[in-house]
Amino acid sequence: MLNFVYDNKTRLIFGRGTRFDIASEVEPHSTKILLHYGGGSIKRSGLYDTITQSLRQAGIDYVELGGVKPNPSIALVRQGIDLCRTHDIGFILAVGGGSVIDSAKAIALGVPATEDVWDLFMGKDSSSYTPLPIATVLTIPAAGSESSPNTVISNDETKRKLGHSHPALRPVFSIVDPELFFTLPHNQMANGVCDMMSHIFERYFTNTTHTDLSDSLCEATLRTIIKNARILNTNLHDYDAWAEIAFSGTIAHNNLLGIGREQDWACHAMEHELSALYDIPHGAGLAVVTPAWMHYVYRANPGMFVQFAVNVMNVEGSYRDQDSIIREGINRLQAFFRNLGQPTTMQELGISPEDFPVMANNAINVRGPIGGLMKLDVKDVQNIYKIASMQTI
Ligand code: NZQ
Ligand code: ZN
Fold first, then answer.
1. Which one of 23, 42, 205, 351 is most buried, counting C-beta atoms within 10 A?
2. Which fold has domain 186-387?
3. Closest C-alpha to ligand 1, atom 22
4. Which residue CA neighbors atom 45 of ligand 1 most closely?
């Protein structure tokens, strides 16, 4: 196990009806905030009215900025920065999913910055800045941004999608009320499930040894997600299944499961290029890329993949030879994604092989070779994109 410091300041307010606590949670932080949200789901569900009424009753002033789209854009972030500066706002409340939360974090980061905020996503150091505090009301369990220090933003002009991390970007509080997930369409549930599973895979598949506890926590969380996703697959109004999924989604990415281990993150880097060029949902891209990546890299650490096949995908330990056990585990994972209605090939995402070279180059060119379990260069990434194009792998 590697040395670690685990420092997570996010106060998690979890459960049925917690959305009604919003004003009392905001009040100690600020009486003037930016209220940031997406494309309209919170207005249709009534959450917008609940929140604005509570804020008004508590005497909390708010300036609004809606319109965040999935794969949130740097253009709206720049507008948000201007709004905060003009109105002297010191606190941001994000009401939505990963896209809204990430947009809020990028605004929070950009307000004190002296350069254009996109420069920070292009790799400029932000450690001397103190971002504005942000808080969230989560409306879709998926990205884990409600308790992560990361933000991922798209630049529609340069066709890039890049992340930035700053410890102070962990929200000061996040309200996770599973009743808010009842209005989600089926495909967004499936996208969220694939994303949170990937956040665990990126941490689980490692060459670090003596990680018994975090291995077991990863496996237990993956099993919980699979079990409850199967319930939601037929009933999107099952409160208990949403509660299990939401709790799993938060710990999948608040890094509790990744401490003491070298992490991978190749699938996320490869997927972000798909979303950047084709504007596809992140979770759908991961459903396509992940099994292909597993096939390509498993020989770097077969023991880890046998463990996954047996402990998570329930492949019998006596199931033929080691290679067959691993392949059966990957096939069962892919079948699970398919059963959720997710795409499992590049063709289903409408991605042309002609774009593989440019996407592979972009995946590598900001930070160099990607991956922890196995270092991947441009050629490797192209090979994985090719495997992801096959009907059966
Ligand atoms: O915009 P609205 O109208 O709200 O609709 C959204 C959006 O269309 C809808 N939705 C959300 N909650 C709903 C709802 N519809 C009905 N009822 C509800 N309760 O769902 C759609 C998707 O929302 P989005 O926020 O894009 O989803 P998600 O949470 O999956 O976020 C995806 C983004 O997070 C980034 C991804 O790259 C992607 O851009 N990630 C952020 C991470 C982080 N900051 O730590 C880590 C992740 O790896 C991920 O990369
Ligand atoms: Zn993700």
1. 205
2. Dehydroquinate synthase-like, alpha domain (1.20.1090)
3. 70
4. 145
